C-alpha cells in the first residue's frame, strides 16, 4: 500500500514541478532514464520471475504476444480517435483550439489516468506477492514512466482550462486509484497465486511496448552525437539502478 501511494504521489508531484516550471531538458532526460528502468525491470526481473514460477512457458509467451498486440491496438485506437477529431478542419490546435472540446479532453484524460493507475496498483500488488524485490523495482519503473506521461497530461489539463492547483489535485486523486488497484490485486491474487506470472508477463509487455514503440522513437528524433551520448548514458543508468536494487535486496 505504501508503494502504491508513493508511486502515485511522487509521479504526480514530479510531473507537476516539471510542467509548471517548464524544465523541458529535464523531461527529455527523464524519458531516457525511464527507458532503461522499464526495460531492465521487464527483461531482468519480471519476466525471469514469471518463467521461473513453473507456469507453462508456451502460455506465458502467448500472454506476452497478446499483451504486445493489445497495447498496439489500444494505441492505434487512441491515435485514430485523435486524428478523426482534428482531420480536415484547417486549424492549428496547439493552444486551446476549442474550449468545449478542450474541456472534454481534460476530463477524458483524468478518466483514462484513473483506469491506468488502477491497473498499475494491481501490477504492484502482483509484483510484491511474487517477490518483494520485484515489487520495489516495479514501483520504481512505474514512477519513471509515469512522470513523462503525466507531464503531457498536465499540459492537456491546463489547455482545457484547469488551474494549476485544480489540475494537480484532480491528478493526485486519480493517482490514488492505484491504492484501490493494489488492494484488489493483493486480495484477489493472494487467493489465485497461479495468475501472478501471467499478470507479470502482461505488465512486462506493456513496459516493453511503451519503451520500444513510444519512448525510444522520440529519442531517435534527436540524432546528433551531443544528444545521443546523454541518452545512452541515462539508459545505462536506468539499468544500473535496477541492478543495484537487485543487489540491495
Automatic annotation (TrEMBL):
GO terms for cellular component: membrane. Keywords: Membrane, Transmembrane, Transmembrane helix. The keyword Ribonucleoprotein does not apply. The chain crosses the membrane at residues 6-23, 30-47, 59-74, 168-189, 195-216, 228-248. Its main location: membrane. It is found in: Membrane. It is a multi-pass membrane protein. Signal peptide: none annotated. GO terms for molecular function: metal ion transmembrane transporter activity. It holds the Pfam family Zip. This is ZIP family metal transporter. The lineage of its organism: Bacteria, Pseudomonadati, Pseudomonadota, Betaproteobacteria, Burkholderiales.
